Amino acid sequence: MKLVNSISRMSTLVKMLKKEGKSIGFVPTMGYLHEGHMSLVRAARKHADVVVMSIFVNPLQFAPAEDYDKYPRDLNRDEELAGTAGVDIIFCPAAKDMYPEGYTTYVDVEGLSSFLCGVSRPGHFKGVTTIVSKLFNIIRPDIAYFGQKDAQQVAIIKKMVKDLNMDIEIKSMPIVRERDGLAMSSRNVYLSEGQRSEALVLNQSLAKAAALVKAGERDPEKIIKTMAEMIAKKPSVKIGYISVVDSEKLTDLRAISKEALIAVAAFVGKTRLIDNIIVKA
Ligand code: PAF
Predict the structure, then answer these.
(1) Could you report the average pLDDT of every consecutive run of 10 residues in the chain (281 residues)?
(2) pLDDT of residue 113
(3) Given this model, what pLDDT does residue 228 score?
(4) Out of 48, 67, 125, 143, which could bridge 113 as a Cys pair, Cβ 3.0 to 4.6 Å?
(5) List of domains in the chain
(6) Residue whose CA is closest, atom 8 of ligand 1?
(7) How far is the CA of 28 from the centre of ligand 1 (A)?
(8) Residue 212 Cα, ligand 1 centroid: separation in angstroms?
(9) Ligand 1: which residue has its CA nearest to atom 6?
(10) Ligand 1: which residues within 6 Å by Cβ?
């Protein structure tokens, strides 16, 4: 496995791979890898000749009061995990190279970026789409893999690729959960034992919502109310939003008629967690 820090070295490697006719599967990450990332690598391994993973904590997608500085980082550990999972190249550029002085160009997917997490994190998705576009331009992947836990991110990236005619297939892979149901996230390390245990209510409330839909409930308001009541019983969990939306347009649904995305965001102590489930009427 190669570890590449320089953008020009990465571009040279990509040119060589393209010349050899190799397909590139790409897994963008911010590091501190967990089983969720590994599942993306395994999928890429199956479908591409070469698997490239980026590890870059992107300053542009963090607001000033957010956790950019304390976001967990451990490159040695990540290298070991990535190597075991079958990554061929880790691309790990420096922030000063990705955003040199005088940098002024951004990619913004309007509409989709302002719903759900976009309400409390203005500018976040502009940061995501800008860095993902830059990484796509450098790595020129055939397929790129994203986790469904960030359902809004996936919808936005798909829209960006469509709108900008990028010739890249976007694959969304299922949420990977801990044995007790907590959705895997690099931010789970921030949780105390008590908070971690209360955080399980997010997945439990989504499971309850799915059971209600299965039993015939079609009214988003009733589903949201049930979920909110469950979550309110956990003192360290503060709801950001609970939404029942169209899974592509991310707009609120008045009734569940086909497929719906039920998404929740909450602060558990100071840690912001998200989770979701797709349900079908
Ligand atoms: O999902 C993430 O880890 C990040 O948002 C991504 C896609 C790597 C962009 O920084």
Answers:
(1) 98 98 98 98 98 98 96 98 97 98 98 97 98 99 98 98 98 98 97 98 98 98 98 98 96 97 98 98 93
(2) 97
(3) 98
(4) 125
(5) 2-173 (3.40.50.620), 186-280 (3.30.1300.10)
(6) 29
(7) 6
(8) 32
(9) 29
(10) 28-30, 58, 61, 128, 131-132, 150, 153
If you measure from the C-alpha of residue 54 to the centroid of ligand 1, how many angstroms do you get, rounded to a whole number?
9
CA distance 234 to 29: 31
SS3 121: coil
Count Cα atoms within 13 angstroms, Cβ side, for 240: 21
- The predicted pLDDT at position 89 comes to 98
Which atom number of ligand 1 is nearest to the Cα of residue 186? 3
Buried/exposed code over 93-112 (b: 16+ C-beta within 10 A; e: otherwise): beeeebbeeeeeeebebeeb
Which atom of ligand 1 lies nearest, measured to the CA of 58? 10
- What's this model's pTM, rounded to 2 decimal places? 0.97
Other residues' Cβ atoms within 10 Å of the Cβ of residue 143: 18
Looking at the chain, how many residues does it have?
281
Active site residues: 37
240 in helix, strand or coil? strand
Distance CA 257, CA 260 (A): 8
Pick the residue whose CA is nearest to atom 1 on ligand 1: 29
**């034992």: which residue's tokens?**
193
Return the pLDDT at 205. Answer: 98
pLDDT given for residue 169 in this prediction: 98
* CA nearest ligand 1 atom 2, residue: 29
